Amino acid sequence: xxxxxxxxxxxxxxxxxxxxxxxxxxxxxxxxxxxxxxxxxxxxxxxxxxxxxxxxxxxxxxxxxxxxxxxxxxxxxxxxxxxxxxxxxxxxxxxxxxxxxxxxxxxxxxxxxxxxxxxxxxxxxxxxxxxxxxxxxxxxxxxxxxxxxxxxxxxxxxxxxxxxxxxxxxxxxxxxxxxxxxxxxxxxxxxxxxxxxxxxxxxxxxxxxxxxxxxxxxxxxxxxxxxxxxxxxxxxxxxxxxxxxxxxxxxxxxxxxxxxxxxxxxxxxxxxxxxxxxxxxxxxxxxxxxxxxxxxxxx
Length: 299
Known about the structure:
DNA Primase, Chain A, elongated, five-stranded antiparallel beta sheet, 27% helix, four-stranded antiparallel beta sheet, DNA_primase_Znf_CHC2, alpha+beta, 2 domains, 15 strands, Dna Topoisomerase Vi A Subunit, Chain: A, domain 2
């Protein structure tokens, strides 16, 4: 049994026994490490390892990984990938199995769907970048930030395109400037299959990305932090498709940047459970303000 951290709880886990449930090809077991062919891709020369003891017990890596979500992580993320479960589901299962007393009995759901191929998305005809929005500027989203995200608007509405990581236009959000009414492009890709600003992440390659509920909050991070980039999921919960998109981001650190209320706290907790084994994590500190944009405009 080895001692590992799961959701800030210290737990003794039988790492070797858990790994023994799987077939490992070209495997070499020692007391300290398992070295084997990658379980996530075709691998003729063993390039995958799991530490079996010590301070880094359960930490794993795949030096030839083709998918950043399956390149390295902790023991929870490894089992989640092997089983096809979410990170949070796997963490709860381990806590229940190895004696954490407060976890309720779980009913485990089936394997998560894989991401749909890109050609299943509804790709819209591309649009010219809209004019700079005076409304967005009044919210602290400068002309430069608007150009970075390809947003803008006119006297009646703000226009905020949602794109794939490759920059293909998949939906558009329109927001009235005189009240909080908004709507999306009809017949487009559902928002819960996209992440606003993901194309900016892949284009700019920042070290850190802030994950928000709304687009204006996401863009606010460009002004809050030097080199800051934000993305948005469009609400206070994370879909399976959005989780997969976020897991693949080429970044080192994420900021949990949900709104400063109960729904935002719920999103932050979900993000921590789902993504915590893959990125460094820190929480946004809004100093009592409601969200990232409010924080920007009082500082």
